[in-house]
From TrEMBL:
It comes from the Bacteria. Residues 1-19 form the signal peptide. It comes from Chitinophaga caseinilytica. This is Outer membrane protein beta-barrel domain-containing protein. The keyword Signal applies. The lineage of its organism: Bacteria, Pseudomonadati, Bacteroidota, Chitinophagia, Chitinophagales. Keywords: Signal.
Amino acid sequence: MKKLLLLFGVCLSSTCAFSQSFMHGAGVSAFFEKYKDVDMSTAVGFTYSPRLNFVETESMSVSVGIPISLAFSGSGQYNSREGATDDFKLGILINAPVIVNLNFGAGSTPDNESRLGGFIGGGGGFHWGASTDQLDQNGNVKNVGGTTFGYTGNAGVRFAIGDMGNTLEIKASYFKGVNENKLDLIGIAGIFNF
């Protein structure tokens, strides 16, 4: 068994030495945050998605990436008599998972000429949300947010744009926090890959 693992490692490292490429993209994203016993909130923001392909073939690649997202949300009650918002609160979140993806078709490598492609993968990561007080299901005030570590998965499709190797990526992701707040984070993004 040890010899087989050593052979696999040597083959993987020799393939990696000759087939690495850096790819990245940027776009807009929306997140749906659900903490334990509190209502779901929505945040909208931006994502920068760098990745390094460490294994490549003509039609697919395996990559490691850190899609970093910064998103904002707001809440408050509108007072129609005064034309103002009472108790407005700005929420900020940062999501930075490390994800290993299997990429195929368009956008899997810089030289792939397919018009359609996709990816699927998973990993773990870090999530930070500004601490806010929210009402739980019993009407009690509960402080949610802060730093969370957890597991994540994502999948999406890529469409080739023009002849320069650029792609448009539509992605869905899920992040499960493992701390006491039990964060469930669903994300969707539209990313232009350079």
